[in-house]
Amino acid sequence: MKIVHISDLHLKKFYNGDLPIEITKELIEDVWKSFYEVSKYINKISADIVLIAGDVYEREFFNMSDMNRFLEIIKSIDAKVFISCGNHDYLDDDSLWNRVELPKNLYVFTNEFSYVDLEDLGARIFGISYDSFKFNKILEEPQLSHEHKNILVIHSDLKDDRYLPLSKDFLNKFSYVALGHIHKRQKVMDRVFYSGSIEPHSFKDTGDRGIIIYDTDKDEIEFKDFSSKDFVTLEYEISKDDSLQEILREVQKLLDDGNLYRIKLKGKHKNHSQISEFLNSNLDAYYFEIIDEVKNDLDIYEVFRDDYLVKNFLESFDDTESLAKNLAIEYLLEQYNGI
To answer: What span, in angstroms and rounded, lies between the C-alpha atoms of 178 and 176?
Structure first.
């Protein structure tokens, strides 16, 4: 039996930042495209069960047209699909789930802990859906079956009381646990995993993105990447002797087409006030933003060699006031550069 574990699609999620609207729209569409590719892959490997561990969509932006689009993809999947709703797509009286007819291959768990038996596969699928953004409920003892693989799909933060935390003793009762909520893929314990999101949603979402495949017959767990873009944070140390063109050339080498970059500039440079503006005007990338932490490399005494007021001011600091002196020097140099 092959089980595919997916979570945190966050369909129609808008990036919380200052991205251009065209890029925001493209990132939203990327998730749809990746989910469609996942659906084709599920059929390609002849998976038997698909577990989606919550946060399928963003309630405030997801409409009926989007729901129908999602259900069309679900209908194209040959496997049985099980969804436990999370804190972003929680199941209450206003939920879109109440306004559609579910495909025959889809089961959405309610806000009561329950299970579904798949006799032909020898599997018992447990799950529960959130009914509000914050959901903390004491789950009853699972009715485990000795004749079935006992499988749990659930949206949970094991360290946060707001999002259905579960003990490791509870999780250890199951043959496999498909967790959602944490966007980064990680192993909690044997056969207990967060699959992470299939696309990154912010600069916090680093590393590969995709799905987990669990082959119960071979007892093998595999990860497959489906992300089309990466959010990348990188640091570049400025050399004080580099020209602006040299800095541009070296930073440009670090960038790949199609990714989104947050570039932290470090070091010291005499023209530090010009570097960010120069890079913003000349770097070639799908998207980037500059965090400028470059310090001034000018010699304060050389800059103000003819200004006795400044020299006397700086000499007025004693050995115990080095921090205040350094701040004063930084301020004076900024004023000299017109910042």
So the answer is: 7
